[in-house]
Amino acid sequence: MLWGRPPGLRGSSRTRSSASAALAAALLLTACGSRGVRAHLAEPFPTKLSAWRLFIGDPAALKPNAGVVPYDLNTPLFSDYATKYRFVWMPPGTSATYSDTEAFDFPVGTIFSKTFAFPDADQGGRQRIIETRLLVNGRSGWVTLPYVWNREQTEATLDVAADPATVHWVHPSGTRYTIDYVIPNTNQCKGCHDRSKTVTPIGPKARNLNKDFNYPEGRFNQLAYWTKIGYLKGAPPPDRAPKLAVWDDPSSGTLDARARAYLETNCGHCHNPRGPANTTGLYLMAAQTDPMRLGLCKVPVSAGQGSGDLLFDVVQGKPEESILVHRMESTTPKVMMPELGRTMVHQEGVTLIRQWIASMQGSCVGRTSRSALVLQDPLADVNVGRRTGVLPHVISPPRTPGTIPSRAPS
Ligand code: HEC
Ligand code: HEC
Questions:
Q1: Which of 43, 168, 324, 383 is the most exposed place for a label (fewest CB within 10 A)?
Q2: What is the pLDDT of residue 368?
Q3: Distance between Cα 83 and ligand 2 center (Å)
């Protein structure tokens, strides 16, 4: 069996060259055999997940078929504490093109799958899979396909507008929760996977993939492994590729780096100049350098309920006065952020962002809604503040770990 282990388990330590030999054999099998992955590139898409043949054997074991490669991210999206299993497959002989900054450019026929599961409190903690989301690079662009699993865990069915699933589950701390887990509909997929109004992958960027993974053949850096098996072209050695911090691992970066990584994956896909929240002018990608774009002393575009009567998105040193925290701590529609994809508050994530804001120096005293005025054109040069003289210059690297230099008074 070529890819015969559940994701994330350490396998036998085969050598690198036998790994590529295994892949070559796997691709051959895909090409000529009838048991390989079956890519569907246009309507009608299969109503059953099994028709894609991404997994073999017991469906709930998510044992990948030939060429289906598990992967992980440095800092993932929070989804009500669900366990997630991610896989990618590309048609034999094709590869993605590397980029330092954007999601890679993937060949037509690429399939991403992401499966969401919980330890089922009704079944002694046994894993219950709720849904598998596919993102398929079809003939006319990326398609989003949500498949919902049955209680028997034998099959998942395409449901473009599924009802919420009631899940009783146990947190690692032992606390039991009952949630109405919301399975996004296909429009909501687009609400996050949207770049300039086109559906696009979010996670597979160099900085988020740049980490080691335990493959059946052994432990390798994911960028190096994808390159080795022919899934990626043009990548530098991993130590020269960008790397996102791991939000909950202090050894991976400063408090600032981890908070920024968290905001990138959980907020940045909407909060960027080409995303669904572009009109806010609040841009949360990790590469953002303008403090005002990051929310410091930034007056929100729309006041009202969402702001909780607070004045600024981020007030240095004052998490309780920061709208950012207020909206992360909410589960009320129209207030909560992200606005999609969760029903629970991510306590650990909120704690991180609180610590980050608490560590900042400076104040918003004297700030007025004038800073909101320069944001009317969301696509304006991010350094607009420089021209108007209203806002300070680009942020310099933190002088001490976890602090952001305070802003010059205006
Ligand atoms: C709240 C925003 C949000 C919604 C809603 C959402 N996604 Fe995603 N999705 C993400 C983010 C962020 C990632 C990357 C981070 C991760 O995987 O943890 C991602 C990753 C994925 C991946 C893995 C490939 C990639 O782009 O990284 C697939 C497949 C996917 N989503 C499919 C879907 C489908 C299908 C839907 C609708 C049923 C959907 N998503 C709804 C935010 C969202
Ligand atoms: C699915 C897309 C989406 C995601 C993901 C998302 N947001 Fe938003 N956000 C929006 C939209 C749209 C608005 C504007 C409407 C509003 O204020 O409700 C907004 C507004 C805001 C505002 C008010 C900003 C201003 O200056 O006007 C804050 C603060 C905010 N979001 C914080 C966050 C944080 C923090 C995260 C991640 C933890 C996040 N958002 C994730 C879509 C998103």
A1: 43
A2: 60
A3: 24
**pLDDT higher than 50, residue 406:** no
> Do 110 and 236 reside in the same domain of the chain?
yes
Instruction: Please compute the mean of the pLDDT values over residues 378-385 and round it to a whole number.
Output: 36
In a domain, 225, yes or no: yes
Q: Is 146 in the pocket of ligand 1 (CB under 6 A)?
A: yes
376 secondary structure, DSSP code: S
Ligand 2 midpoint to CA 351 (Å): 18
Which residue, judged by its Cα, is nearest atom 22 of ligand 1? 114
Place of tokens 């890519």: 39
By the 8 A CB rule, do 266 and 349 touch?
yes
Compute the average pLDDT of residues 239-268.
98
Tens digit of each residue's pLDDT (9 = 90 or more) over 174-215: 889 999 999 999 999 999 999 999 999 999 999 999 999 999
User: Is there a single domain that holds both residue 233 and residue 308?
Assistant: no
Query: Could you tell me if residue 79 is inside a domain?
Result: yes
Q: Beta strand 126-138 with 141-149: parallel, antiparallel or unpaired? A: antiparallel
Residues 261 and 227 in one domain: no
Crossing angle between the packed helical segments 255-263 and 347-358, to the nearest 10 degrees: 130
301 lines ligand 2 (CB under 6 A): yes
Same domain, 177 and 144: yes
Does 401 map to a domain? no
pTM: 0.86
339 lines ligand 2 (CB under 6 A): yes
Average pLDDT, the chain: 85
Query: Residue 305 — pLDDT band, cuts 50, 70, 90?
Result: confident
143 lines ligand 1 (CB under 6 A): no
Residues 94 and 236 in one domain: yes
Nearest residue (CA) to ligand 2, atom 4: 338
Q: Please give the residue range of the domain that contains residue 130.
A: 13-240
pLDDT band for 10, please (50, 70, 90 cuts): very low
H/E element holding 156? strand 156-158
Domain membership flag for residue 129: yes
Query: Average pLDDT in the 242-271 region?
Result: 98
What is the longest distance spanned by two Cα atoms in the chain?
70
- Same domain membership, residue 313 and residue 203: no
Strands 232-233 and 165-170 turn out to be unpaired
Task: Please check whether residues 224 and 308 belong to one and the same domain.
Answer: no
Query: What separation in Å is there between the alpha carbon of 308 and the centre of ligand 2?
Result: 14
* 191 and 271 within one domain: no
The closest residue, in CA terms, to atom 42 on ligand 2 is 277
Domain count within the chain: 2
Nearest CA to ligand 1 atom 36: 189
- Which residue among 45, 84, 114 has the greatest number of ligand 1 atoms within 8 angstroms of its CB, and so is best to mutate? 114
